[in-house]
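Have a think about this chain, tokens included, and walk me through the fold.
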Amino acid sequence: MEIVANINDSLAELLNIDGALGACIVDYTSGMALGTAGSGVDLELAAAGNSEVVKAKIATMKSLGITGDITDILITLDTQMHIIRPTVNHKGLFIYLVLDTAKANLALARRKVQNIEDSLEV
């Protein structure tokens, strides 16, 4: 199926980012991962939990009267960085990437995630 192939290709590209541990593409309306790759965390659980993060941020922005789209949400931990990037062309989805802090370049990773988002077809 073409959709699955594109998701799998996008996940493979995400895992090629320096320091990448795991990645998934998530439907945040349901909390379900459309595809996962790698490890580092329980990606199915992360998909569901981070869906709540995205929904909470969208609701907060609406309450504050802030317009526009979220570019990305960054969560930094002692040994990991987590990038959550809601997709512009596919409302209701986000890309989630887990990086090893010691091996990753955050600026390059954010740029590569943006490029993968731009080519994502679902």
Observations:
- The mean pLDDT is 93.
- The CA atoms of residues 6 and 43 lie 19 Å apart.
- The two ends are 11 Å apart (CA to CA).
- Residues 43-64 form the longest helix (22 residues).
